[in-house]
Amino acid sequence: MSAQILIVEDEEDIARLIARTLEKESFEPLIATSLSEAQKIISQKLPALIILDLMLPDGDGLELCKSLRFREEKGIPVIILTAKGEEVDRILGFEMGADDYIVKPFSPRELALRVKAILRRSQTPPSSVLKFGELEIFPEHMEVRVAGKPVKLTRTEFNLLLTLAQAQGKVLSRETLLDKVWGYTFEGYARTVDTHVRRLRKKLGSAARYIETVWGIGYRFRN
pLDDT, tens digit, for every residue of 4-13? Predict the structure, then answer.
């Protein structure tokens, strides 16, 4: 059975273009033209991934993104697809729990590649629990604890932390992290890594010290 992808987009031409692109990749697209319609679909069937516009007729798409973070559906990956391309918009999107952020006009081929990359990494097989002092990482449950207290991370934040931890002290460039965590290496998206690392450190609190910046190169995990 093909994975269902929910497209939340009020512009018909764009929604149809995305749907055709996904169908060519053997996905089953579902289309919602408003937040209320999207919420109704999600309540009936959980899609494998959501492609979300921000400017919708009945509100801001970020509200949907935010609500998914605090409900049982928070495991659904979200790609924001919008005309809002300022850095502050990108950062806010990631803060609200988006897994990826694409600015219109966009390449359908690139969108399809990112959808496949996100779904592929969400199926990564579990491995043993990793412990570094007060920091514990549970790959099987996508759970992180600091000093015994759970830390709420998005799927992408968790995969970023796990990738760094499993590198065993090796320095990983931003390009390498893009490839391993996001599944692509498009020029100009290296700052996406910086944004996620910054937010990840904030959430980890005292355990943020494990993620070290190697200036001019990237990051490494130190225990």
Answer: 999 999 999 9
